[in-house]
Amino acid sequence: MSHAVPDPVLPLTYLERPLRPQAAPAPLLILLHGVGSNERDLFRLAPALDGRFRVLSVRGPLVRAEDSYAWFIPAFTANGIQIDPAELDASRKTLITFIAAAVRAFAAVPERIYLLGFSQGAIMSLTLALTEPERLAAVVAIAGRIPPEVLPWAAPPERTAHLPLLLEHGRQDTVLPIAWAHAARPILAAQRLALDYREYDAPHTITDRMLADAAAWLSVRLDESRSGNER
Fold it and tell me: What's the distance, CA 40 to chain centroid?
């Protein structure tokens, strides 16, 4: 299902994968695209993702050009990538509002919300993992980074501890080099997330292997959450 304009209930435009009939409320898997893309980009991954998920591929709130959107507009300077913290925080809060509204709109279980983000979408996924861990069951971040602007907002490690997070990155990535993934690891370790870190011989993209690994990882997390609910 495609929403050409923002849903009157939900604050962001999104695409929804049709859900197979099931008795229990479906867990939500929210896909977050990179800068300059749109909700159609990651929606192409939906057929490879566990059919138990209600998949929502969400459009970033900032318009760059026709069919080109972002979560924040980075500036590439001689001193590195610069981000407006207020712009990043505004999108973070909009995404939090979207998640809460989606839980209500789809009668979802709040404890079964999953994120998968690529590039800038991975940055947003990591940002939410560090700042709003209680809202998430597990996070996949592919080819992203943790902006230093986010660190002052991070929740105490007691709150982020044990949140499952899969970090995937290509060694040949020239857009967001592998050094960003290396830098993220000690931050995530200090926050005590349950980190699964994987490197690939890949550029700045989602390869078939990366997608298969992410899909399998999410299915395991989903099985774990279901077992926990049944105990």
Answer: 15
**Could you give the count of Cα atoms lying within 13 Å of 46 in the half-sphere of its Cβ?**
24
Torsion of CA 196, 187, 97, 95, to 10 degrees: -70
How many Å from the N-terminal Cα to the C-terminal Cα in the chain?
Answer: 35
Tokens of residue 117, six digits = 């983000």
Structural domain contains residue 137: yes
Domain of 206? 14-230
Answering whether pTM is above 0.90, one says yes
Question: What residues are paired with 31 via a beta bridge?
Answer: 57, 116
For 154-171, what is the mean pLDDT?
98
SS3 194: strand
Predicted confidence (pLDDT) per residue in 11-66, tens digit: 999 999 988 777 678 999 999 999 999 999 999 999 999 999 999 999 999 999 99
Give the CATH number for residue 196: 3.40.50.1820
